[in-house]
Amino acid sequence: MCAKTQTLSSGLEDYLEEIYIAHLNETPLKGAELARKLNISRASVSEALSKLVSRDLIKYNSYEAISLTPKGLEDAQKVYAKHHILKNFFEEVLEIPAEEASENACKIEHIISQNVLDRMINFTDFYKKNRESIEKLKKDK
Amino acid sequence: MCAKTQTLSSGLEDYLEEIYIAHLNETPLKGAELARKLNISRASVSEALSKLVSRDLIKYNSYEAISLTPKGLEDAQKVYAKHHILKNFFEEVLEIPAEEASENACKIEHIISQNVLDRMINFTDFYKKNRESIEKLKKDK
DNA sequence: GAAGATTGTAAGGTAAACCTAACACTTTGT
DNA sequence: ACAAAGTGTTAGGTTTACCTTACAATCTTC
Question: Which of A103, A113, A123 minimises the CB distance to B104?
Fold first, then answer.
């Protein structure tokens, strides 16, 4: 019934996303801080960062801030974008409260297909532009 | 940024769902056949079935068909329902082709919140009832 | 320029979910 | 009824992603 794919594991995508958020905020981020953010041990983060380095997604030297390589930046942007497409869709169209929208987005962002995301973008856009008419349809029944 | 839950692993839910489908079709299902359906070794299926038995979700004796306990039936129905809510939503609202809709549903069914599913049900329903008016809105721009 | 705090990493461990190979048991077909 | 085919289980292995403990390296602050 189902099947599997995945090039970057959902875990590594989470690390990358958090690194990207620090990058957006222009906040230097070290391994220990990342561990705190993700609620994961420093040791596990250390391992994960090695993987990201070996895949040329981040630059990292002990005791320095983590930074994204061009490839890492690109990948991170993709994950981050997915998160927001989902979150917006859940909030704007399905009227899910922000926090719950975000929690769902967090999990789904790693597995959803690009095609579905594209439709969501269009749909959210359409929905926002026509909110009033749609509300009317809903009420008219 | 994210967090975790899960009572029945996504893997076990897949087994349960497939058993439920056989139940719906009134097709007797043995471990070996389940292994073929899920593309997993007989050995792994054997292990998984033991877990499902020990959680009182299925009844199973070697060389006989697998059957669902009342609790297992209930759980399976929930997973199956989730799958269809998602699939319908993707197909009807987002106009995703059937197969892709199903593939996405397969993965997301294990992690999405009930609240989002409820909204999807309502939305799909609303959308189907107002398809024409909505199409018009889309075209008018 | 040390002391104390923080940060990083190595070693060794666990758990889940898979695998193959080998063997035993059961069913089927003639 | 018995050989062949199919089914199930066991043992042992792999991988991934975590963990804790302990120690090493680096900062920071007085």
Answer: A113
